[in-house]
Amino acid sequence: MNVTEIYEGMVGMYREGNVSGNGSMATLNSPSPMNKIISIFSIVILFITMISLGCKMEISKIKAHVLKPRGIAIALLAQFGIMPLTAFCLAKMLEMDPMRAVTVLVCGCCPGGSLSNIFTLAIKGDMNLSIVMTTCSSFAALGLMPLLLYIYCQNFPGLENAVPYGGIMTALALTLVPCTIGILINHYKPNYSAIVTKVGLSILAVASTILLILAAIAVKDVLWMALTADIVGTAALMPLIGFLLGYVMSVMCRLNAQCSRTISMETGCQNIQLCFSILKVAFPPEVIGPMYFFPLIYIIFQSMEALLLALCFRCYQKFKAPAEDAKVYQNVDVKQEEEKQP
Predict the structure, then answer these.
(1) 16 burial via Cβ count (<10 Å: 0-12, 13-18, 19+)
(2) Which end of the chain has fewer CB atoms surrounding its CB within 10 Å, N or C?
(3) Residues contacting 43, CB < 8 A, separation 6+
(4) pLDDT per residue over 314-336, tens digit each?
(5) Could you tell me which residues come within 8 angstroms of residue 74 by beta carbon, excluding any fewer than 6 positions away?
(6) What is the pTM of this model?
(7) Per-residue pLDDT tens for 218-232?
């Protein structure tokens, strides 16, 4: 039994020209060549992203954090504990239909994304921990993501045996291979790492733009159906909850402020490229419908909220630093006065 079989009644309605009034299972009325092109661009974007991530990673840094795994262990627990549970709770509270629920769960169970590295830099976090965490979570997702989806889908009628784990495993494997290639390039040919990353980012920008245009054309008639209150609300709340609970959990585990900020970013920032690829590879277009654009809505809120937190942190530092400097100078003056006294 698979997702397509569960929703074959809906697909039949669509082929007959009828779509349910609530639009929750609207479909992609796009020709087969268009779907193939979108799939190819999705894979290309994921491949380039993970190679670029691998080129930033050094085996020595991985070893250092593996030998002292406390930070990684807490970060992995936050990533695969907080976000999937948040996605599940929101889907349950908002009483989402199965297709919406599984889309939100896929996004929640994804590993951390490379965008977290940028935001970690913005909040002056631990870059080594951020990059190692992104890499380790990508490898850990190969086992944890299918397991978490299986556990949480048991609570949604019709999804117990419907999640296409084969397609998800394929998409996850596509992340590990290029990431490993990038690590090997950085280890054996470090001079080429910067070139590969720069070229990769240029190709990524062009490919992402083309993908968004093609996908928008493919769903131009049903795109608005994804912009419902429950979906937009979920996309706004998920990253915010991840940022806040990731930081709280790190503080409770007595990590320093720099590591806590890093884990906060890693928890809230999901691998949206991977989420896009999984939804495209694992679910037929007539089933996923406009929910294919949920990761796009998510990344918009994710980026806005991360930028807002980074701005708040920078403002805090700006106003805190003069106060600390004044306190230091005051202590120095007091000490000098004491030294002058006989």
Answers:
(1) exposed
(2) C
(3) 174, 277, 281
(4) 888 888 755 554 454 455 454 55
(5) 249, 250, 253, 255, 263
(6) 0.71
(7) 666 666 777 788 889
